[in-house]
Design goal:
The protein is an alpha+beta fold. It is built from 15 helices and 16 strands. Strand 3 and strand 4 form a beta hairpin. The longest helix has 20 residues. It binds adenosine-5'-triphosphate (ATP) and magnesium ion.
Length: about 425
């Protein structure tokens, strides 16, 4: 027996990552292209950001106690011994760049970006370890108009994606700093009285971050969260006025919204507007787009007080709602027969493509195989070029749906197809 070498093992993809292909990739691309179009209508400037940052960019701005920082970050030491983290979200890096790149001079700065994010989560449908978001932020604007502009843009995006049906905007205010603090104390008082009946997680949250108890999905917490004091009891006149301007702006723009008094953002730097666009069509993963005002964030990164507001949406979840999309079909399929025709058709294909006509070339197998490839491509026309056509400077143009065909001069083809 001769020595059998071990077969090479194909390395597997990392759990929770995705290879997106075909109709799903088209849906993904459609989401990004639509976002790009809409953000230009609202004059958000495009930015491209690094995929990794120093770990402190996230630990400081997100807070050590959040799920993302405590459990979900991909952090590692690089060869220089520095702790780096694959970005789990966009906002912190954008806030860092605002400070380190002198973007303050552009305030109020409207920016948009998209790309991959990384979180060590339990992989499941709609939840991945590398996923993608689109993101829009207005940094350096404390006016309610900024909140309205972002929300109206989100609403238009969902409509242009064709997925607005069954998606509702859940809107809340967390008030200004004094309102929020009064609410926090009110919640602590209330939940303390029921401490023994709360879930362990919520008992833990009680002193540190009682707002997050309202967010709990644990059935043991539900009866108490329903009766908890709401922010409205604590809102200052100023905070009420701000929220009133946001809702009036949405009404003026014809954007439907629902008041969701228990919708919170746990982190201390969130103020005023908090929102989620929610659907019941994605099971447990129902939030398709979420955001809010984060007036205190830039200060946690050592910058001056800088009000800001923004949102992010998971591209995969949007793409799931969009559904599989057809891949592009060519306008024409070229079917060359014979060596000379094959060479000439490479020229013909280039000419047509340069004039904006999508071309598929059927270059494999016999005539029958080539014609069936042309049919399968979904093209409207087949251009058949054999020796005879070539000598005459012509092609046989066949309308694939009807089988109708005619000979035509090559130079006349672009105009004929365009017509
Ligand atoms: P969830 O409650 O679903 O964990 P989150 O509060 O962690 O969401 P955000 O950080 O607000 O989510 O991110 C905004 C959006 O990004 C989500 O609504 C979702 O569409 C998407 N998203 C978040 N985490 C993932 C993930 N692991 N895989 C796919 N999409 C995700
Ligand atoms: Mg999460």
């Amino acid at each position: 027996m001769s020595d059998k070498t071990q077969p090479v093992q194909t390395p597997q993809a990392i759990r929770g990552t995705q290879d997106i292909f075909g109709a799903d990739a088209e849906a993904f691309g459609f989401v990004v292209e639509t976002f790009e179009r809409v953000r230009k209508l609202y004059r958000f400037r495009r930015v491209e950001m690094p995929v990794f940052e120093k770990t402190t960019v996230f630990s400081r701005s997100l807070g050590e106690t959040t799920d993302v920082v405590s459990k979900e970050m991909y952090s590692f030491e690089d060869r220089g011994g520095e702790s780096l983290t694959l970005r789990p979200e966009f906002t912190a890096g954008l806030a860092r760049a605002y400070l380190t790149d002198g973007w303050q001079q552009h305030a109020p700065l409207k920016i948009a970006t998209h790309g991959p994010l990384f979180r060590y989560e339990r992989p499941q449908k709609g939840r991945y370890r590398q996923f993608h978001q689109i993101d829009a932020e207005i940094i350096g604007a404390g006016e309610p108009q900024a909140d309205v502009e972002l929300l109206v843009m989100a609403d238009q995006l969902l409509k242009e994606l064709g997925i607005a049906d069954g998606v509702i905007l859940q809107l809340n205010t967390l008030g200004d700093a004094p309102s929020r603090e009064a609410w926090r104390l009110g919640l602590i008082d209330y939940f303390r009285a029921h401490k023994g009946s709360l879930s362990e997680d919520s008992q833990d949250r009680l002193e540190r971050n009682p707002l997050r108890i309202l967010d709990s999905k644990d059935p043991r917490d539900k009866p108490f969260t329903a009766d908890a004091p709401m922010i409205d009891e604590f809102l200052s006149a100023e905070a009420q006025d701000f929220f009133g301007k946001v809702t009036a702006g949405l009404d003026a723009a014809g954007v439907a919204w629902n008041r969701a008094p228990a919708l919170v953002r746990g982190l201390d730097y969130y103020r005023h507007t908090a929102f989620e666009f929610v659907t019941d069509r994605l099971g447990a993963q129902g939030t398709v787009l979420g955001g809010g005002r984060y007036d205190g964030l830039i200060e946690t990164l050592g910058g001056p007080h800088t009000p800001a507001v923004g949102w992010a949406a998971g591209i995969e979840r949007l793409a799931m709602l969009v559904g599989a999309r057809d891949e592009v079909t060519p306008d024409v399929a070229i079917v060359p027969m014979g060596g000379a025709a094959e060479t000439a058709c490479m020229g013909l294909a280039a000419t047509l493509r340069r004039s904006g006509i999508a071309v598929e070339m059927a270059f494999r197998g016999n005539m029958k195989k080539r014609m069936s490839r042309a049919n399968d491509s979904g093209a409207k026309f087949a251009l058949i070029v054999g020796d005879e056509e070539l000598a005459a400077g012509e092609a046989t143009v066949k309308i694939l749906a009807t089988g109708e065909q005619q000979r035509m001069a090559l130079h006349a083809i672009p105009a004929y197809i365009g017509a």
